[in-house]
# Entry
Amino acid sequence: MPDWRNQHLVVAIDGPAASGKSSTAQWVASRIGFRHVDSGALYRAATAAALRSGVPPAEWTPGFVLEQAARVSLTPSETSFVPVIDGESITEEIRGGEVTSNVSEVAQMQVVRGWVNHHVRDVATRFDVVVDGRDMGTAVFPDADLKVYLVADPWERARRRLAQRLQRKPSDVEIAQETETLVKRDAADATQTVQARDAVLVDTTLLTQSEQVDRIVALAQAMIQRRE
Ligand code: CDP
# Structure
């Protein structure tokens, strides 16, 4: 284990767009008493900060986005670390359509990837963590104590994301449109979305939220027992 890890435990949950990583990671963290860090929320926060500048996305350079991202910090709550801009909550802003349609481009910028990875690793030097994203179990924590790769059928991922956003049952036309958007984002994120060879694959297509949380909590508890 590298020195900077300082003996804290890491559960890494990766997977494609809307596979349920963040909500699952949040529940798992609170059940096992770890802190949750959502790396995708940091990419989204950097994107939101750049959008707030008013400079059009076509003109963003990696250096410019990094400069804007300096206004983002991670605020601790009891069970997680959430990004804020200039101390202000951005929970809703980072889920908006403008952020979502520009985030993949920002996530291709190596300096931004370095910035996100620094923040996530920094929390892991101080706390046991559940981290989620695309490359947590590969590029960021190749020696994570437990790695999970969440997948689900694209139609089902689109249906869940819409139901959450609209707070009602989406129509088939809406699901078809959202599926197309998700599949495009999967393609844009393909380079960094990698299943680690030692990750446990969990297909959540036919699982309820609580079943998938239970499954990962059981894996995490077995890992914690082995470490004690
Ligand atoms: O919407 P979803 O939950 O799938 O995405 P997210 O986890 O909020 O991540 C938003 C975007 O950040 C992704 O579309 C990727 O472009 C990028 N990302 C990344 O490149 N690497 C990560 N470890 C996490 C997110």
Remarks:
- The beta strands are 10-14, 35-38, 72-76, 80-85, 88-89, 129-133, 146-151, 200-203.
- DSSP finds nine helices and eight strands in the chain.
- The radius of gyration is 17 Å.
- The chain has a mean pLDDT of 94.
